[in-house]
Structure formats: C-alpha cells, structure tokens
## 1
Amino acid sequence: MYYSKGGKVEPFDCQYLNLSLADLNLLEKDIKNFNLPETTGFFFGKDEEHSTNELNEDDLDDLEFIEKARKAIENGEYIYYYSWW
C-alpha cells in the first residue's frame, strides 16, 4: 500500500502512511479473504495461524481497529500507519 500510494523510501521503515476510508475498506477485504501475508521473526513474533477458513483473534483485532479508525476519520481525524523495525 505504501508504494502504491507513492512511497519511495526503501525499505518501508519509519515512514508515516495516511490511511483513508478506501484503504481501510481494502484492508478489511484482504483480512476477510485471507490475503495478508503471514509474518514471523524477531520483530514480528508469530502470527496466529489460519487452520480453517475462519478469522482468528489477530484478524478480529484488526477488524476492530478498522471500525475505530473509520469512526475517527468520520469525525475529522487522521489515521496513520507507522512501522519501526
């Protein structure tokens, strides 16, 4: 998403990414369709695996964030994603 929105820093690290309602809608769709990559490693920990086609606790937490972020945007606030690793 960072690069598709014009981000140029390689690698994507310590950069702010403004999330729009459209971005949140895409993220929600990707979560519900299991399109996000699994992550592991020292900085990431271990994702909760998808043993079935059901959303896991991590997915539900992400969907909860999306709902809160939508409300914040509707109230005139800005939502940024920032990674540091």
## 2
Amino acid sequence: MSIEVLNLFRMLRPRRLRISVAAGAVAVTGAALVVAAVFGAAELPARVLVIAAVVAWFSARVGDLRAVVAVTALAVAVFVGFLANRYGELTGGEGWSYAPLILFAAALGAGCQRMTMTAEDRSGRQPGATPRPCPWETNTMAIPPGSRSGGPDGR
C-alpha cells in the first residue's frame, strides 16, 4: 500500500469511531425506550437483561474497544439513571447492583468479536493471498494473481 492510502485510513479512523458510538447510543436509547414501555418499574431484572443484550450485540459487532467502552458507560448510566431510578439520578437505589451484568455482557460481546478476528485483523494489516486447491487437479495449488512474483508465464 502506498503512504497516501495509509494516511487516508488514519484520517477515516476517528470518523468510524464517532459513527460507531453514535450508532451504539441510538441502539441503547431505543432499547431503553422499548424497555420502559414494555416492563414495569418493579421489573428491574427484565429491564437489565434487555439492555445487557443490546450492549452484548453491539460489542460483538464493533471492533473498536473505545466505542464499546463508551456505549457500555452510556448503557449503565441510562439504566441506573432512567430505568432503575427516576429523573436521571445516578446515586442511591438498587440500580448499581445490576450494572455488573451490563459490563459482563459487554465483555462477552467484545471477547466473541475478538475471537472471530484473524491475526491480520488484530494487527491492522491487510490479509495476504491464501493458496487454495485447484478444483480440476489434485496436486496443484492455485495462488491468486499478483500475490507472488514470477516469470512471464506466472510460474
């Protein structure tokens, strides 16, 4: 890759982070509105399970841990402030005793996402060409064009 392409990727990285955090905030806020409408105020375990499921889904889909941390913090604040307590109060109440479940769900989702990544994804490099068997011959390997330097006939 050329230097210009790498610089372009570096410039786009903060934009992807902002978009990921915004998408996670929309997901958490939407889930909180649905949970508030469906479950009563006394059903805190059901409320926290729905919020935890949304956080786990988000953290399993997003590769940037900074976005996962930001959305998890928002989810905990929304749950404790608006679903467990009223009017955004973050002190007192039993809402904080349910917060570790949201954190655990975020850790599970991030771990699942990390396990599905390849080594090239973790290092930020592009994956190389992978040889695969030719369908018509049994002892030959097909290598994608341009992945290996060779002579004029490609051997």
